[in-house]
Design brief:
CATH class of the largest domain: Mainly Alpha
Strand content: 5-15%
Largest sheet: 5 strands, antiparallel
Oligomer: single chain
CATH topology of the largest domain: Endonuclease III, domain 1
Shape: globular
Order of helices and strands: EHEEEHHEHHHHHEEHHHHHHHH
Length: 319
Amino acid sequence: MKPYTLPLPADYRLDDVLAFHRRDPESIAEEVSAERLRKGVLLDGVPAVLDITLPKTSRALHASASASTDTDTDTDAAAGATARVTVCADAALSAAGRQQARDAVLNILGLRIDPAPFCAFVKKDKLFAALAKRQPGLRIVQSATVFEALTWAIIGQQINLSFAIALRRTFILLAGRQHSSGLWCYPDAGSAAALTVADLTSRKFSRAKAETLLRLAALVASDELRLEIAADNSIEQISTSLLAVKGIGPWTVNYGLLRGYGHADCSLHGDVAVRAALQTLLGEDTRPDIQRTEEILARYSPHRTMAAAHLWASLHPRD
């Protein structure tokens, strides 16, 4: 697969992308620096590394974006910033593998959801207008694959972030495959399904979490649960199928749709951080309950994903 370049939007927030992918301090499946992102993935079963050379600094991106606002040219073109992508696979890639690589790059660079429609939608909104204005260019950064997003959601349920990252690392080492460069590739459904519950529970996974992970993996590996969107398999059908899996609830499904598919209308009303941020935005003394949060977020359909993104980001504002 030949190297290629991707244009980056004028308001691209590179720091957000780097922060999302450097969460694991041991970096067994991702290597992140200011100018380079390397991610281990399985592409149609082949270990590969997506090697992405990034613009030299996020400041240069923002400076370019500022310069473009005074012209009538397309802002993406005016910015002139690009990411160069090299796919380093351990064997020849099939057509499916090459497409998986392109999809994964768009995901991990956060290029699926255009933030502009949400910003236009809330331009005069009493609740979100000022927040969206303070966070221009905010995007949803995704996991490389839908399966990674769903399994990460399961792993992270009801535990703190540092413990979740440690469990994720264990999962990768148990079921993933190592690329020839030494970087680990996140497991696919087939490799995860080969694990046993004991493999996971002996390494600090709860039984319920282990059983849910392996149940999902087995269903996906056998094609009983299809994760690919198709004419006969809409996002709504996929959501229904996921909810039918024991151990998977609405929060996991919505988080999976957000981080896996880049679906624009996910309602994260069950997310504690979303509710905490909404409390601050409302200026209230207590967090809104789940039902009220769902009702508030419903006002922003079909842009609820970006509403959640802005709420999350408001908890950790950039300098």
